[in-house]
Write a structure and sequence with these properties.
Blueprint (H helix, E strand, L loop, with lengths): L1 H26 L9 E7 L2 E5 L16 E4 L2 E8 L7 E3 L6 E4 L3 E5 L4 E4 L4 E3 L5 E3 L5 E7 L6 E8 L9 E2 L6 E8 L4 H4 L4 E8 L5 E10 L5 E10 L10 H7 L5 E11 L4 E3 L5 E3 L2 E6 L7 E2 L8 H18 L6 H5 L1 E7 L2 E6 H6 L1 H4 L2 H4 L3 E16 L6 E4 L7 E4 L14 E10 L9 E4 L12 E8 L4 E6 L4 E7 L1 E2 L8 E4 L2 E3 L20 E4 L1 E3 L5 H33 L4
Parallel strand pairs: 14-28
Antiparallel strand pairs: 1-4, 2-3, 5-37, 6-36, 7-8, 7-11, 7-33, 8-35, 9-10, 11-12, 11-32, 13-30, 14-29, 15-16, 16-17, 17-25, 18-25, 19-20, 20-21, 21-22, 23-24, 23-25, 25-26, 27-28, 30-31, 31-32, 34-35
Length: 575
C-alpha cells in the first residue's frame, strides 16, 4: 500500500520539475539567443517480489517471469536544444551580430573565457568590442602589422577604436595616369596656351596640390609636346618654382625643339621707334635700356635696385609678349624660335637667347620688327607622338615601348622632401575626332589604382563581414582591417554549462576550448550584422507540454488520494 503513495509522490515531484523547465522556457521566450530545454522521464526503480525461473525439461513446465513492482519516476535528463537555430530579428545596429551555424562567440570577463550566442555588442569607452548586457570583451584575432593579414593565434580582446585606428595615415602620390582623347582640331591644343591638364597629387603630410601640364601641337598634327606649367597648393596659391626647377622637374632640364610654323605679328596700334622703344598709339610703353641684363624697362630712367629692376623687366617682357599676341603666355613667347641675321648669316635662335645676348643679336625691334615667321619653339618636357592612321599612342620621349613620363618633385631636394617622384602613364590616351573637343585628363594612381596618395583620413564607419572580419572606413576613401571575431566550436555543444546572462562555460563533456578558436566559415557558418538571434522556444510546443504535465500531475495526485482512502479503510477494520 505504501508503495503507491511513494510512487505518487515521486510522480508529483518529477512533473513539478518538468513544469519548472517549461516555465523557464516560456519566461525566456524573448531572451536573445536563448536555447530551450526539454525533460526526459525515467522510471525510478522496481521491487522484485519473485525472480524469473526457466523452463523445467524434466517436469515439462514452462518458465515464469519475474514479478516486479515499480516504485515511481525520476528525471532522466534535461536536454538543451543548443544547436536549434533561433529566428533572426532585425535591429539595424551594425554591432549586433547573429551567428548562423553551431559556433559560439567567445567573451572574457578579464579572468576566464565564456561562450555565447548573444551577439548584442557595442564599443566601450576604451574602444573594445564588448557585450551590451555584461560588458565582457568580445575575443578575436588581431592584424599582423607587417603583412596586414589576420594572425590567428591566441584570442584577445578586440580593441577596434584605438587611437591608432581612428585615423588613416596620409601618403604621397607616386603614380598617375592620363586618359582620354586629344582632338587635333581642338582650338585649345592648337593655341599658344595649349590644352591644360590638371593632376591632383598629395605629399607625405596629406596636403593636396594641383600640377598643371600642357599639351601643345606641332606642325606635325599627330605630334605634341607635354610640358609642366606650374603647381598650385590647396589654397590656389602658386608654389614658388624657378624656371630652372620647372625645367628640371619634368624632362630632366634638357631643352627640346618642336617644329611649329607660327606667324608672329605686331598687333595694331603697336610699333617700334628708332630708339628701340615699344610704342602703343605712338606713346612709349616699353623703353630700351643700356643694361645688358635688363635690356627693357617700363619706366625711364629704369630702376637701379637689382630686385626692382628684375621685377620691372618681367613686366616689360609681358607687355612685349602681349604686343605680339602672347598675352598671358610669356614663356611660350620666349621659347619661339625665329631666324636672325648675324653678320650676314641667317641663324635660328629663341627669343630668350636673343634677349640673353642683345650685343650679338640686337634688340627685339631688330630681330622681330613688325613680324616674322617662327620655325619652331623650344620647350622642356616630353615629345608625344600618335599613330596618324589609327590614333593610338606611338611614342613618348622617343620610346615606343614605354609610355611613361616622370614628374620628379622629390629630386628638387630641400622644400620638396615631403613629395614622391610621380610616374605618369600616358598609354590610355589616344588621338581621334571628337568634334573638336579634347577630353584628355589626369588622375592620380596608375591604371590599377595604385600609388594614388591620400590625405589624412578620419574614421567614419565600422563594418563586420560575414566571416567576422572588422573593417574601418575613412573619409579619405581608404579601408582598414581591424581584426576578426573568433568563434568556438564544440564536439558536444549540449554539454556546455549555463552560467546565466546568456553565457556558457566549457565542461569535460562538451570538450575544452583551445584558446585559439575557429573561423566561422570553416564549417559553413557565417555572421549577419544588424540582426540578433531570437529564442528558439516554440510556444505551441511548450503549451502542449504544459497540458500533458498538468494532467500527469493531476493523475499522480489522485494516486495519493486513492491510496489514502485505502489506508483509511484498512484502519477502519478495527472498529
Amino acid at each position: 500500500m505504501m508503495r503507491s503513495l511513494y510512487s505518487g509522490v515521486a510522480g508529483l515531484k518529477t512533473h513539478q520539475v518538468r513544469m519548472d523547465v517549461i516555465g523557464n522556457n516560456i519566461a525566456n521566450v524573448n531572451t536573445t539567443a536563448f536555447k530551450s530545454s526539454s525533460m526526459v522521464f525515467s522510471e525510478l526503480m522496481s521491487q522484485t517480489t519473485q525472480r524469473a525461473s526457466g523452463a523445467n525439461p524434466t517436469t515439462g513446465t514452462g518458465g515464469v517471469n519475474a514479478r516486479q513492482i515499480g516504485l515511481g519516476v525520476k528525471s532522466g535528463a534535461i536536454n538543451v536544444n543548443i544547436t536549434g537555430q533561433g529566428s533572426s530579428q532585425s535591429t539595424g545596429n551594425p554591432f549586433d551580430v547573429m551567428i548562423t551555424g553551431e559556433n559560439f562567440f567567445v567573451v572574457n570577463n578579464g579572468r576566464e573565457n565564456f561562450f555565447t550566442r548573444d551577439g548584442s555588442f557595442y564599443v566601450d569607452g576604451a574602444g573594445n568590442l564588448a557585450m551590451t548586457s555584461t560588458g565582457y570583451n568580445v575575443m578575436g584575432w588581431g592584424v599582423d602589422p607587417e603583412t596586414g593579414d589576420i594572425r590567428q593565434d591566441s584570442v584577445a580582446a578586440l580593441r577596434i577604436m584605438s587611437s591608432v585606428n581612428m585615423t588613416y595615415p596620409a601618403e604621397a602620390t607616386s603614380k598617375a595616369h592620363m586618359s582620354g582623347i586629344i582632338d587635333k582640331n581642338d582650338t585649345d591644343v592648337t593655341s599658344a596656351n595649349g590644352k591644360v591638364v590638371n593632376l591632383k597629387i598629395y605629399d607625405n603630410l596629406g596636403y593636396e596640390y594641383t600640377a598643371k601640364f600642357v599639351f601643345r601641337q606641332s606642325s606635325e598634327k599627330n605630334r605634341y609636346s607635354l610640358e609642366f606649367s606650374k603647381m598650385l597648393d590647396s589654397t590656389g596659391k602658386e608654389v614658388p618654382l624657378t624656371e630652372d626647377q620647372k625645367r628640371a622637374v619634368f624632362g630632366g632640364g634638357v631643352a627640346q625643339t618642336q617644329e611649329k610654323l607660327t606667324s608672329i605679328k605686331l598687333a595694331d596700334n603697336y610699333s617700334w621707334d628708332a630708339g628701340g622703344n615699344l610704342l602703343v598709339n605712338n606713346n612709349p610703353l616699353v623703353y630700351a635700356t643700356n643694361n645688358a641684363t635688363y635690356p627693357y624697362s617700363t619706366v625711364t630712367p629704369p630702376p637701379t635696385d637689382a630686385e626692382e629692376a628684375a621685377a620691372d623687366y618681367q613686366k616689360a617682357l609681358e607687355q612685349i609678349a602681349k604686343a605680339y599676341g602672347y598675352e598671358g603666355s610669356l614663356n611660350e613667347f620666349m621659347n619661339l624660335q625665329i631666324p636672325v641675321d648675324v653678320a650676314g648669316v641667317e641663324q635660328t635662335h629663341s627669343i630668350a637667347d636673343i634677349l640673353g645676348d642683345t650685343a650679338t643679336y640686337g634688340g627685339l625691334d631688330q630681330a622681330l620688327g613688325e613680324g616674322k615667321e617662327s620655325t619652331g619653339r623650344t620647350y622642356y618636357g616630353y615629345d608625344v607622338q600618335y599613330n596618324a592612321d589609327n590614333g593610338d599612342i606611338m611614342s613618348v620621349g622617343g620610346s615606343s615601348t614605354s609610355f611613361l613620363v616622370n614628374f620628379n618633385l622629390a629630386d628638387l631636394g630641400e622644400g620638396f622632401t615631403n613629395f614622391f617622384n610621380v610616374q605618369i602613364d600616358l598609354s590610355a590616351t589616344s588621338m581621334c575626332d571628337n568634334k573638336g573637343t579634347s577630353t584628355v585628363g589626369a588622375t592620380s594612381g596608375d591604371l590599377e589604382g595604385l600609388g594614388t596618395g591620400r590625405r589624412l583620413g578620419d574614421m567614419i564607419g565600422v563594418s563586420i563581414q560575414n566571416n567576422g572580419m572588422i573593417y574601418a572606413s575613412y573619409d579619405n576613401g581608404m579601408t582598414k582591417l581591424l581584426g576578426q571575431i573568433a568563434t568556438a566550436a564544440f564536439a558536444n555543444a549540449s554539454g556546455l554549462e549555463k552560467k546565466g546572462d546568456n553565457l556558457y562555460s566549457a565542461t569535460l563533456n562538451s570538450g575544452e576550448f583551445d584558446g585559439i578558436g575557429v573561423d566561422i566559415t570553416a564549417n559553413g557558418g557565417y555572421m549577419s550584422t544588424g540582426q540578433l538571434e531570437m529564442s528558439n522556444v516554440d510556444l505551441s510546443s511548450e503549451f502542449t507540454e504544459m497540458i500533458t504535465t498538468q494532467r500527469g500531475f493531476q493523475a499522480n495526485s489522485r494516486i495519493i488520494t486513492v491510496s489514502d482512502t485505502l489506508l483509511e479503510e484498512l484502519t477502519n477494520l478495527k472498529r
